[in-house]
Amino acid sequence: MSTNARSDFEKSIFTIECKDVILREFLVTDLDDFHSLTWQPEIHEFLPGWNVSKEQREDWFTNYEIPENKQFLNTASKSKDIGELRLRLGIILKETGKFIGWCCSGIKDELPPPNREIMYAISKNHRGKGFTTQASQGMINYLFESTNIKVLSAIALLNNTPSNRVIQKCGFSFQSIIEIDNEKYNHYELDKKDWIGTR
User: Rounded to two decimals, what is the model's pTM?
Assistant: First the structure.
């Protein structure tokens, strides 16, 4: 691939710039890193069902997740009304260019409307450094600035102290404790009006 072709390709990839990390759309080449992260006990403890076989992950990744990202970004750039489309972005460490986690947004059926949530996960080797908070804030900024979303939700298991802390740092307000699949979660919401007031 020529240098010009590479730079043109890189320019076409959707990214959100944060202080120490970059959020960017999934690429086929992220599959191995993504799959290995889903098998970290520290991640699948709080995201049960994500640690599927490599074949299942590849099917989801290439046939559903990457195409839906394209559809979301295309729709947002044209109309801002993204409906129930999901957006899944990788968290890339600027210092190394390594895929270290993900930050996503989609409809959470178990929540009362408006029920678009943001969720995230990060490698055990990159926790406690503020990267997840940066990524979440980058996602929130994009969703409120570039789509028709007015309210975002977030949930975290009661005992997931780091995740609860990230949600609170991002300005979400506690709503209630809810139960999903026999597990208790803190449910939070962030209103666009409140978000604008903090900027």
Answer: 0.90
